[in-house]
């Protein structure tokens, strides 16, 4: 199969920034007069807050703005475009109904400084979401305040620090598996601890002997996710919890991989003390280009005194009803981690999802996520594929799985990145590549519960076609993609010489 020789219309189109489209004097909108007496600007703002020169903003007409950003949006690949099997990211369908619910005026127009007495509905929703997440986690206390998964991680480690400090226990290290997400060691460092890596056993779980050697009086916490980033549930989780607790440390659960167990089993029942959720992964909050997000955190009774403030509380009113308030009177709290109480629109979407599915629906979502992953894994075991992309660990998985492209590289002459780029030409976003790091030429795949059988079969067919193509001519994949708006980038040059700022037009 030969590579396409003709550029696509998007490739031929000159890509301009909004600055390059700017022309002096063009306006999209001119505000009418205020109708009130003007006051000198120096009476309204002190000199230190005023610009010395007008802001340099692009000057374009309204049609130019609309067309420019419409064209840019059509160059993107997103969940409404096609299958997005990024492992450890859970790119699944976000119901459009939830967007409409979050946009209702009572939600969208609520000011974050609204007095609690005039925001009872919002506070009740937040309280009920906390109760639902507490049930999912198997831990009784929840704070919605963290803004993202990494923020929830930081909260968990800071809570651990406060717990040990309150007991007068000086601890210096945090244990993380060598399969951990990169945010784990970053979080540990930000919290002032030293990272100690724990090895992986041949079956893909935690190396218990290595854990026993490293869990000691210096250990503050073990950060773990179960299933892990290899897509495997660790059958030794109760023993792991015992080892960690015997050392006087806490056990923290990275909720990124909650999608396989939600409604089936609970981290709190496994022995975890702290759990953070990724609402954009498990509870259908859109990823949103980096935000807004939410990373709520659930904790056990012994960690509860240190939770962030303010806390949403429910009080009986004496007439059979209840009122809701924000309570900041928590002397042992680690304080605030952000302004206000979190991203309320995110809470609305996630609460709508939980209420829509109910307990049985949440369990079914987990079961189908596991079923889809194992079905796709089986499809990729077919002759012509399985020998080139074998599973890194075992023949079964939870909601995601890891393949190794090492045989593909040796036998067909293409790397994991080449396969990923060629998938774009077939209309599929690539899976996660080169993570986890301990797997050579890793390919981490998560199909999620929202994809159909037909989609999974078509994806497996595409992988098979690319490998068959590479057997005849590996150069096709090595130079892919061909049909995307932009061709393959020189990633090494981009890393060494990043262009982070465009000069303004003269």
Descriptive notes:
The protein folds into two domains: 98-355, Type I PLP-dependent aspartate aminotransferase-like (Major domain) (Aspartate Aminotransferase, domain 2, 3-Layer(aba) Sandwich), CATH 3.40.640.10; 380-483, Aspartate Aminotransferase, domain 1, CATH 3.90.1150. The protein contains 18 helices and twelve strands. It has helices spanning 9-12, 41-44, 62-73, 96-102, 105-108, 120-137, 149-166, 183-190, 208-214, 237-246, 267-270, 279-282, 344-379, 406-412, 416-425, 453-472, 475-478, 491-496; strands spanning 141-143, 173-177, 194-198, 219-224, 250-255, 274-277, 297-299, 311-316, 322-327, 401-404, 432-433, 442-445. A hairpin with an 8-residue loop joins β11 (432-433) and β12 (442-445).
């Amino acid at each position: 199969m030969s590579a396409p020789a003709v550029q696509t219309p998007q490739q031929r189109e000159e890509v301009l920034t909004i600055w390059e489209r700017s022309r002096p004097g063009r306006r999209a909108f001119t505000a009418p007069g205020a109708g009130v007496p003007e006051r000198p600007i120096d009476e309204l703002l002190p000199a230190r807050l005023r610009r010395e020169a007008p802001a340099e903003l692009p000057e374009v007409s309204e049609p130019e703005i609309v067309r420019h950003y419409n064209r840019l949006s059509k160059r993107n690949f997103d969940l409404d475009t096609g299958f997005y099997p990024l492992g450890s990211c859970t790119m699944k369908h976000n119901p459009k109904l939830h967007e409409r619910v979050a946009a209702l005026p009572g939600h969208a127009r609520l000011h974050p400084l609204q007095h609690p007495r005039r925001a009872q509905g919002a506070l009740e929703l937040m309280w009920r979401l906390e109760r639902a997440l507490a049930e999912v986690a198997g831990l009784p206390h929840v704070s919605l305040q963290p803004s993202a998964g990494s923020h929830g991680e930081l909260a968990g480690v800071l809570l651990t620090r406060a717990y040990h400090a309150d007991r007068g226990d000086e601890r210096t290290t945090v244990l993380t598996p060598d399969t951990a997400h990169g945010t784990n060691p970053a979080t540990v460092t930000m919290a002032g601890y030293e990272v100690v890596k724990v090895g992986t056993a041949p079956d893909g779980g935690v190396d218990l002997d290595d854990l026993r050697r490293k869990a000691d009086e210096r250990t503050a916490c073990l950060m773990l996710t179960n299933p892990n980033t290899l897509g495997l549930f660790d059958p030794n989780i109760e023993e792991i919890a015992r080892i960690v607790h015997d050392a006087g440390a806490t056990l923290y659960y990275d909720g990124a991989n909650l999608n396989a167990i939600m409604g089936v089993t609970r981290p709190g029942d496994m022995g975890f003390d702290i759990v953070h959720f990724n609402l954009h992964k498990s509870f259908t909050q859109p990823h949103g280009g980096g935000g807004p997000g939410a990373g709520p955190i659930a904790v056990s009774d012994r960690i509860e005194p240190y939770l962030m403030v303010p806390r949403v509380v429910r009080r009986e009113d004496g007439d059979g009803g209840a009122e809701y308030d924000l309570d900041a009177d928590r002397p042992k709290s680690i304080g605030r981690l952000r302004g206000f109480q979190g991203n309320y629109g995110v809470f609305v979407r996630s609460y709508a999802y939980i209420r829509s599915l109910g307990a049985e629906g949440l369990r079914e979502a987990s079961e189908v996520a596991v079923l889809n992953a194992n079905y796709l894994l089986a499809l990729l075991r077919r002759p012509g594929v399985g020998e080139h992309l074998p599973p890194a660990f075992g023949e079964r998985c939870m909601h995601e799985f890891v393949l190794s492209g090492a045989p593909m590289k040796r036998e067909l002459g293409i790397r994991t990145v080449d396969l990923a780029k060629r998938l774009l030409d077939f209309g599929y976003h690539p899976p996660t590549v080169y993570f986890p790091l301990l797997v050579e030429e890793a390919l981490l795949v998560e199909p999620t519960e929202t994809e159909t059988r037909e989609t999974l079969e078509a994806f497996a067919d595409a992988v098979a076609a690319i490998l068959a193509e590479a057997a005849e001519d590996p150069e096709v994949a090595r130079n892919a993609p061909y049909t995307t708006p932009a061709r393959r980038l020189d990633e090494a040059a981009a890393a060494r010489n990043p262009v982070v700022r465009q000069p303004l037009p003269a």
